[in-house]
Fold each of these.
Amino acid sequence: MPHKTRKYLLAPLIYTAAILLLFEEWLWNASKRVLARLPLIPFVARLESWISNFSPYAALAVFLLPSLLLLPVKILALLSIAHGHPTLGLAVVIAAKVLGTALVARLYALTQKALLSLPWFVRCRNAVLRFKDRMIGQLRATQAWQQIEAGVAAFAAMRRQWWEALRQRWQNGNGQGNRLARMIRKYAARRRDRN
């Protein structure tokens, strides 16, 4: 098969993989931020302290455990889809993906020091990160992606302008808007006085 034909046939797969990797990266970072607040709970703080002191292979087992535990759930979801319940199956797959990624991200943050003491783990991790960066780089180099990024940036700028105009109208408004703002402020002041 000629190189150009193979390139065009593989392009949709590469871009799909890159989009999935971008989603995974966003989910990883978002879940890390959310789960970083959990140590405020004393039991969770003790559990995380205990996990962060594991030996490298115990840390590896804890790191891989959520993926292994969620595998049967994903298989059951696929069976549900195959037996005529696509919505339920898809909801279970998405929920398992979100929860699994969140848990793995937190466990990786806790066990990273121990895991990075294993040379073969570092090599595997670096290979995965290089692959991910290459796929995402190919996606970002496309004209379609650049148009999407320009559209998102334009939408964000428009949203900021709209919010600023709304805020200005709220502060300097006249008529109904100004009266409503005064009523809300009075109500909030009364609530504060009661407390």
Note: The longest helix spans residues 3-35.
Amino acid sequence: MRGMFTAGVIDVLMENGISFDGGVGVSAGAVFGCNLKSGQHGRVIRYNLKYCRDWRFASMRSLITTGTLYGAEFCYTEIPYKLDLFDIPAYRANPMEFYCGCTDMETGKAVFRHLEKGDGEDLYWFMASASMPIVSEPVKIRHWKLLDGGISDSIPLRFLENKGYDRNLVVLTQPYNFVKKTNKALPLIRRVYKDYPALVNAVATRHMRYNRERAYIKSRAASGDAFIICPPEPLRIGSTEHDPRELIRVYDIGRQTMLEELPALREFLNKR
């Protein structure tokens, strides 16, 4: 739910007519960030507020009855197709390229997918990107078994640069000087995923990879090739949140942070 910070950021971007040629999202950054391509201002905060107390959206009951903390059927079928429509025609019409990152359970490596249609298989890629270990079923797409993209590549700036994008806005949901530590759930992950040693190794080494990525992003910002948006202090919100006031609080931090940085971002984007 730190992704509510991202939701606030992208709404301010849309309000101010700031668009991008391409983007990549991982986990909540994928399932929330895709609304930037579909141009659906306010959609993320709207459906989160409406359904945050619905057991089908995110709950232990959902985990017990469906195998996923965030109910797959409700979140990726009921909401986008029936309850709060994802604007598929607008998503397809926007020339912005949008990629999402997942983790291949067999190899422990990142798998990125260019999502052009916004429905069908694309929604499974979004779901896979946000499928947290332990509390989610693996998502099977073709020959892949996939989980949360953050395991293998939490902040894929290099991926986007390798696609030719040389001026990039990086939205982080941890403060600037945050340092990730070893996953406390690693012993449990070793037991649950004992048949996937590459995945376990990816989880065990994630903090080192993540901290290297943060250092790289800072170096790119220092050279003028990246622009970082991040919360000024820890957001103090968990993986789930049933209190609408907390969702609004984090969303508003994202809005305020982006509003304060708008002049500097415009200057950065206008440089040649």
Note: The CA atoms of residues 28 and 180 lie 18 Å apart.
Amino acid sequence: MQNLKEKLISFIQENTPPNQLFQTIINSLSFFTTSDLQEMDNVLYEPSLCVILQGCKKVCLGEHTYEYNPQTYLLSPTYIPAKISICETSPQAPFISLKITFSLEQIYETWKQIDCNETKINNQLQKGMFFAELQFDLLEAIFRLVKLLKKPQDYRKLLAPLILKEILYILFCSEAKEFLKQYTLEGSITSQIAKAILEIKNDLTKPLKIKELARKVSMSQSSLHHNFKKLTALSPLQFQKKLRLQEARQILLKKHTDIYQVAFDVGYKSPSQFSREYKQMFGISPKIHTKMKT
């Protein structure tokens, strides 16, 4: 397995710019490299599988801090705000990781095609992230996906979706099975909270009405609040605020634009409140962020 990791490290270093997040021509696949240690920073995990090939990272979700490295992987089936820090890297051995994104629909479709009749709902809700040991069959499938970057477009278009489905299948056949399955089972608390998360994200600019949200996901308001916080470590309102600020940061980093307009675009009615909460979250004012490059 170490040989595969070394090949992936060489490929990424030879084919991507250093010290940045790099989106590949396969939409679901991206690389990240850095030679700099990174203090705790707010990020938004999307539905994805994250693998570290070199270095070490800490992930803080609520009161819990997890550390993972090239021996483990991180799986997040939904959108989860968290804090991260790069705790092991250097110019000689930079931090190198890759991310494979997918949707809840892809998880569900893969689960439907698995020949099993398990429909037992486990309502022991856990955090929205799963960490486990990286196995050879998973890394080998990832390696084949990365190799597609050197293939012709028609080749990639045909095989990339098949390998992505294979990766999800491998996860369903691993210790991640029970964790993933609860996101697919209608009526499980996990799937209801995942739907609530998508409702908030899809209507990010609208005022959040907890009563209406609870009705949409068939939960009581108290149950929604309790279980939402258990999965994300945030209340629905806190979650919405973090998503709005993350969206604003992405806009500001990608283009020089009017800060006040960005505030309104992500749902803020008060630009001063936006600037204050932005600086509280990122430690830097939105005005300064507009001068930074991705």
Note: DSSP finds twelve helices and ten strands in the chain.
Amino acid sequence: MREFILRARKAPVKPEKFLDAVGTGAHVEYLAHNIINALFVSKGHRQDTILTIVLEDSADFSRALTFDGRTLGSLTGLHEKALLGVCASALRASIGLGKAGSIISEHGIAVRTISFEHLVKEKADGRRIFILDRKGQDVQSVEMPDDPVFILTDHIPMPKKTFNSLARLGVEKLSLGTLMLHASQCITLLHGKLDR
């Protein structure tokens, strides 16, 4: 099972604010591209992939939206508006969720109140985790495990202290080249390598 974790630091957790953030500095519209590139293929979706998007702009707890290819329900339309609507619906279902709470939304999306750091700590138990960094080891020279976890971020760079805590967990830096790419493009390139 391949897994992608996308940290969206400025994406709002409140459903209405989430939808209102399209075209603003939060750039939530790019989340739809990540969902498409992580999970969908021609006439279907990947059964071997999990995408978790961690939204951090919250008055209470961060929300992790998990799209699991094995249990993903029907999504209406593969365009930004429809996919962001599905995310907003999942966020709406999570209103009032307490610390360490979880629910499954109507589309099969799991929503948890968990921080990015705690989520990565959970995944670090026995799995190889990679964070994309231009100064990391070249992806072509790395032998990938069967169940890799890849950490990506939105347009806001990861704070240095976060890099340090990830390094303590054994997270490896991985480079896709010298050009800074969108997270959705990185997902496509990683799928290409893993599919071969």
Note: The mean pLDDT is 94.
